[in-house]
Amino acid sequence: MSLKTINKSAKTVAVISLGCPKNTVDSEVMLGKLAKDHYILVKDPAEAEVVIVNTCGFIEASKKESIDTILDVAKLRKSGNLKSLVVGGCLAHRYGDDLKKELPEIDILFGLNDVENVAQQIKGVASPKLPWQTGEHHHEEDLKPMLPNSLNEATYVYDASSPRLLSTPGHFAYVKISEGCDLPCTFCIIPKIRGHYRSRSIEDIEQEAKNLAAQGVKELCLVAQDSTWYGSDRYGRPQIAQLLDRLAQVEGIEWVRLHYLYPSRVTDEMLDVMAKYPRITPYFDVPLQHASNRILKSMQRIGDRALLDKLISRIRNKIPNASIRSTFIVGFPGETDEDFNELLDFLKTSQMDYVGFFAYSQEENTPAGLMENQVPEKVKQARLAEAYRVQESVAEKSHQRWVGETLTAVVETVENGEVQGRTKYQAPEVDGVVLIEGLQNPQVGQWVKVEITHGFQQDLVGKAVSQGL
């Protein structure tokens, strides 16, 4: 990504986005704002005078990745062009005071409410004789006016008028339909970081969809902390079915993909709309977290194993070939061998297509983090490996249903003669791919009909039979 400008004094800026697609959207709004303010955007942080790290602070692994990235970028003061290191996002919002004390390499920190003020943040760093110019570490008073107070209530929500520059390939884009969360899951810090649930209006999201379609985007990936709760705060009841109905009719959009569904909130109304429109992908991303009633209760999740079993059946009865994705936590406090075996049994019986697993991360300021019966790390890792082994076998079997079928795929990558694509049953970045054979002059974003010849593990293999949707 690069933006040329006639302003020769403009600074070069790179943005590094960590964490989930919801964070990606924030980074793209930052990029859009910087482009509007005539900064020169570069992909390579080594070429940038200013590097912005948009951090994740969800679990221990993501916090470590964020801090490691900040420290790696700081080295560019010697090996690159770096003059200003700017840090925002969830980690900065959650731990602003701590980062200020522990990482003097950072020139400025900003919280989640300042996504569209990023240019002003950079201008604050660019004043004369700042620490990076003198070679001295900065003092607390240098940063204090520009730092967020830790865990200030996040209230920001972008809208269709927000400047935005896509970092995804041009054929798909993430659309954040709401922000924040009000659910009481005992393992999760997100409500304290991202704030209360707040939805955008249907009209505003529809306008953004039209804007994206005009740019050539063909696939909308709708994201939120809980997409099924969309509109409850604004309209008095969930409006996800109504939103899908509107987006399915936006000219130029071919696929509308829905992510992050809370299992107890998947309604028949929503399923009926998804079944009605071919443009709405038959894809269900439903983070279930566990299948043991005892653990689900301890997590303060709404519903039990019976609800999960019924949900899988309801989806497949309405949309027989639906692709189902989920995520689970292993090693939650108090998880016994019996609880874990219940999870493995659910994996075998539900036959989901794609599953991600996380070893439980003990987070401060969460109820689960204070529980006494923490599972040893060695046990967590053993269970994690076993869960992946079981699901790999399940996925390889479930994907055999596509052998002999002809599916539409979009080309995602073309590298060293290998062409990888996705069908409507696969989401970008997180699921398996289709290895496409026999496609002449392949291009990223190209649509092609593929006859599936076989599947292995998470992926499919197919032969191109024609081009176009």
Could you explain how this protein is built, in words?
With about 475 residues, the chain is of the alpha/beta class. It has three domains: about 10-145, 3-Layer(aba) Sandwich (Rossmann fold), CATH 3.40.50.12160; about 170-400, pyruvate-formate lyase- activating enzyme, CATH 3.80.30.20; about 405-465, OB fold (Dihydrolipoamide Acetyltransferase, E2P), CATH 2.40.50.140. Helices cover about 35% and strands about 20% of the residues. The protein has 16 helices and 18 strands. The strands form five sheets. A five-stranded parallel sheet has the order 2-1-3-4-5, with helices on both faces. It has a five-stranded mixed β-barrel with strand order 14-15-16-18-17. A three-stranded parallel sheet has the order 6-9-10. β4, α4 (about 90-100) and β5 (about 110) form a beta-alpha-beta unit. α9 (about 200-215) packs parallel to α11 (about 240-245), α11 (about 240-245) packs parallel to α12 and α15 (about 335-350) runs parallel beside α16. The longest helix has 22 residues, at about 375-400. It is globular and about 55 Å long. The protein starts with 11 loop residues before the first strand and ends with a strand.
